[in-house]
Prior knowledge:
The protein has 380 residues and is an all-alpha fold. It has one domain. Helices cover 60% and strands 0% of the residues. Helix 8 runs parallel beside helix 19 (368-374), helix 9 (164-179) runs antiparallel to helix 10 (183-193) and helix 13 packs across helix 17 (338-348). The protein is globular and about 60 Å long.
Amino acid sequence: MSRAYGCIAIGLVALFLTAIARFYHPGTGFTALIAFPPEGDFESEALKRIPHYQHPASASYDGQFYAQRALDPLFRDPTTERGMDLAPYRARRILFSWTAYALGLGRPFWVLQAYALQNVVCWLMVAALLTRWLRPVTGRGLALWIAVLFSHGLLWSVRFALLDGPSLLLTMMAIIAVEAGHPLWSSGIVGLNALGRETNVIALLAQPVPRALRDWGRLFLALAFAVLPTLIWLDFLRAIYRSTTLAGTNTFVVPGSGIVESWRAALLALVPGAGGLRDAMPACMLLAISVQAAFVFIRLRDHGEPWWRVAFGFAVMFLLLDRSIVDPHNGGLTRVMLPLTVGFNVLLGREPRPLRFWPWFVAGNIHLLPAYYVMPLWNW
Length: 380
């Protein structure tokens, strides 16, 4: 039976890759994954010279900014800023623009292809690494594995070439390093990951809990490794943007206020006759993340687990986020909370009682329903 479950998992990976192949267009490659807007809207001079797929304005998304930054990762072209909104904010998140530039060997067309596809590569690596904790060789293991890989947040990151999928991969690698007994290597990975998205530094919570004076010294050294790359990069940006490097950081509010406002908006969308099943999707996403956070909070006995500590950090962040981030209508919530989703499913996989496992699983992974609207894998 385990072989049958394994074959299903392989089949789902093949289905995912088939869905990705449909984004290929002759002449522009896989740039349809980046969601560039119509010509003239947020396009640098460098981008205008490269063939790329352009979506209607309503279909454009943030990946376009990081893709354009990948064309000029060392800030040599002043026209790149024309393709940015909140240029200093985007510049802080430079890591995956650098990786795209390196993978594309600095050749502009190849760089765009690399940026578009690095989420796909990361998805495949996440699928492989995830089997360390969730082995898809039983019905329950397969269900948990699917709940992560085909979650709304991870598919959204792939579909629009965003930062969250690659960030999740590095977070998983940081946790693996801790579990393998290499906490300083883990902190180095976290420091690198923080250059992709500043909230990735939460993965530093995976560090072992100090039990002796020597452990505290190691923890402070790990903290230095985790924050030093960001401090150096911010110092470089300060020379370019002066005092604007903190732009876009006002995302935290009174604990719980953003959640309350978002729930009110999501429930209002459920008014009978308002819009059908699609209008229920924001409530599904908000319910899933709320259940995941609640589950982590009541599992305090798992505090010794690196995944619990990282998931706890993101659950606390969920309570503090501004309505603009918590609002599931903009698609950002499930992406930002991906480490919480993984931690929830890893911890849930250790629940031996079916009567407790399945209700938590269904409620905490109901984001699988709106994931269909992100990337309908079975539409041909």
